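Posted in: Protein Modeling Q&A

I'm a second-year student putting together a small comparison for a lab meeting, and my supervisor asked me to include a predicted structure for ABC transporter ATP-binding protein. I've never done this before, so apologies if this is the wrong subforum. The sequence is pasted below exactly as I got it from our records. If anyone can share the structure token output, I'd also love a short note on what stands out.
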Amino acid sequence: MPFFSVRDVHAWYGESYIVQGVSFDIDKGEVLSLLGRNGAGKTSTLRTLARTDTPALRRGEIWLDGVPLHKMKAYQAAGAGVQLVPEDRRIIGGLTVEENLVLAQVTGKKGWALEEIYDHFPRLYERRTQDAVTMSGGEQQMLAVARALARDIKILFLDEPYEGLAPVIVQEIEKIVRQIRDLGITTIIVEQNAIAALRLSDRAVIMDSGEVVFSGPAKEVLDNPQLRDEYLAI
Ligand SMILES: Nc1ncnc2c1ncn2[C@@H]1O[C@H](COP(=O)(O)OP(=O)(O)O)[C@@H](O)[C@H]1O
Ligand SMILES: [Mg+2]
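Accepted answer (user: helix_wrangler)
Welcome! Here is the predicted structure, written out as tokens:
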């Protein structure tokens, strides 16, 4: 069985049928780019896989390392090692950087220690006593990723981690994602900036109108102008 397996997943927001039969697999330690135009259903798919209440999963199976996520609620999926970093990052204001990290550690007992986090994110060490929301967008994204690592983690979902960041900061976050990949943490990255996502991915899935229209090696998308034209506008 693949490390992470999504099998014919269907999900609804109330009466709206949005995720329409999505399937793909990821091996342990791989990075997968989940791509597609605005409104294609990428965020909805990540939310479904993380078992948030909406959209509601009504059909299909989701397996993580032999564990049936499709039978779980969001908090149970998180306990099983699913960590979603949403687009809005959900950094907690009024708490310092370190308090944000410690709070994340409370909910996950097998996550990274503070020392380990600061080793990989020296910028967060420098900022550790600062109110987290006063940091720059790039630093907040760093904190959001670090917080996911502080919890029990088996698979990381990043929803548009480069969104709203200047190109030089994108490069910095990209370096972090590369580090995470080198540590062997299985990752799904959703990005509008497809080129940036593809160049650090093993696999790619392209969605359109809630369905998978391509699934294969990331390199194939980079080399296929027709796919890029039709679904990615790059
Ligand atoms: N909470 C919601 N209720 C109803 N429809 C939604 C909700 N969130 C997203 N949608 C719809 O689901 C579709 C896919 O959205 P989304 O998953 O956010 O796409 P993407 O992340 O690829 O841009 C869109 O048509 C969007 O309008
Ligand atoms: Mg989205």
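A couple of things worth pointing out for your meeting: The chain has one domain: 28-51+81-232. The first helix runs from residue 42 to 49.
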